[in-house]
Specification:
266 residues; 40% strand; mainly beta; 5 helices
Amino acid sequence: MLVMKGIWSFCLLFLFLLWGGEAFAGELSERLANFPQWEKLTSVQLASGDLVYPEWMAGTWKVTSTLVDLAAPLAPEIVTPGFEGNRRQLNQPVSFVVRFVKRQPSIAGLKILPQIGYKSSILVADRAFNSLNLARAYLGDEAVLLVKVDPDSPNRQITFLRSSRQLVSIVTARATETTSDCKFITTEVFQQLFKGGSRPYFNSVESTTAYHKLPTSNPAIEADQVTAVYLSPQDPDYFKGGSRPVALYHYRLEFFPQELPTTPKE
């Protein structure tokens, strides 16, 4: 359960949709403001293609992530494993390095040609690099062996852990909301399958993040993120939970520019 607790903590942080998926105006902003009064989000669209970031996120960044609040809306009847232990992470900053790079857009591994109307290059997260650094920051260098992204779909990746354990993450749906003050808000819904324990463990996670470009460089970007964990259909309490999350985690993120590229430990 210690590993699962850490896995919940490094849920996806980087969420900006390439095509469509626009949420109703103000819905995601209101959702963040209403923490922890949440229901399962319905105004999302099927995830397709890679996530595209604004140009002001290009480059390499040191990110500091701090858990500032957490809630168990269905407690004491239903509490997820590791929730109480996660209280020890409150106000304890964790740092890791991420980078965003230019690539040619693709769908299902096929490159999109510029002449059909799409940009010749887009800014995307270096998913394997970012996820490896993020996982090792929370779980330790020795616990995380490798992260692989499906070459045919950026929405599917596998984190290989020690003792032949694996975390398979599949993005299923997204929504975004943009504002005029250098801010964008994103929601991503994904399924997680943890393999290698006594039995496979499956759950559904939603992560909603509001990124804000700052006029300063220290930090240059800040973000608020709420990660919501929902029961899987295999859970005996699944119908008791209904559309409400069983655990909510509120993080504050700060992005500091890094002049020199950083390579994760192999």
